[in-house]
Backbone:
């Protein structure tokens, strides 16, 4: 079942939210649904959220950039679900009007690895999704996606393709230095990677989402030197846990993910 609970257009000038469940979908959104996926040998489930957009529309990655809208996923209303791990396919970088955002165009399939509380019983997945979709206008949309997950299911080509697009892990190839700034900290990473066109390094903290500046990067031989600023809600310097750092590198050579960034010597 798909319900669009609230639509709050940023640029359309509407005074009241629309209940798209009883009328047309909001601008840019074609469909939102749960893909049932399949049961794993361990009794878990691989499913997915699918967001289909009109041509030319985009939505955002978990770290959307300065002008993007960070998506929020809440599975608390699910039943017989102990854990949900979200698999994010490698995003794209969009540059428009001097601003950089990170996300997906036209469609997003977001695989979910679901662990049941009791593997012998069916699961009910409830996903509350707050997300932004943008073209010439930007529209924040709140979705309530629900599905009963039972039976063996079947392999799904869309889910498998999205899982295959997850950035490849590359542990141990980066070292970082951290320094306090007026309203947070600045992180600089030295990443051992061969040069490749269109390199972008994206920074985040896995367990503590916060505002991160647009990264800056340059090459020093076989190293990509990238930096970004982390600014918490307090607007104060803080003790950053470098084991919690995650750096995603996008380039023409593919997408890589680095979990943890120990101190540079």
Residues:
């Amino acid at each position: 079942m798909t319900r669009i609970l609230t639509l709050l257009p940023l640029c359309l000038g509407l005074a009241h939210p629309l209940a798209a469940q009883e009328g047309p979908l909001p601008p840019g959104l074609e469909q939102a649904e749960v893909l049932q996926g399949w049961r794993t040998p361990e009794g878990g489930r691989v499913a997915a959220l699918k967001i289909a957009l009109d041509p030319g529309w985009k939505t955002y990655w978990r770290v959307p950039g300065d002008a993007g809208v960070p998506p929020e996923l809440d599975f608390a209303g699910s039943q017989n679900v102990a854990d949900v791990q979200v698999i994010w396919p490698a995003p794209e970088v969009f540059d428009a009007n001097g601003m950089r955002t990170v996300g997906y165009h036209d469609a997003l399939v977001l695989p979910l690895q679901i662990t049941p509380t009791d593997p012998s019983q069916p699961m009910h997945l409830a996903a509350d999704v707050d997300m932004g979709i943008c073209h010439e206008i930007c529209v924040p949309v709140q979705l309530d996606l629900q599905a009963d997950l039972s039976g063996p299911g079947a392999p799904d080509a869309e889910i498998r393709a999205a899982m295959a697009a997850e950035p490849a892990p590359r542990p141990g190839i980066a070292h970082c230095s951290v320094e306090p700034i007026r309203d947070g900290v600045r992180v600089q990473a030295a990443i051992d990677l061969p040069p490749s066109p269109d390199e972008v390094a994206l920074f985040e903290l896995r367990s503590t989402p916060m505002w991160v500046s647009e990264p800056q990067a340059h090459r020093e031989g076989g190293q990509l030197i990238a930096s970004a600023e982390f600014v918490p809600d307090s607007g104060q310097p803080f003790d950053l846990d470098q084991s919690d750092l995650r750096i995603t590198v996008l380039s023409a050579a593919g997408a890589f993910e680095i979990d943890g960034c120990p101190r540079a010597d």
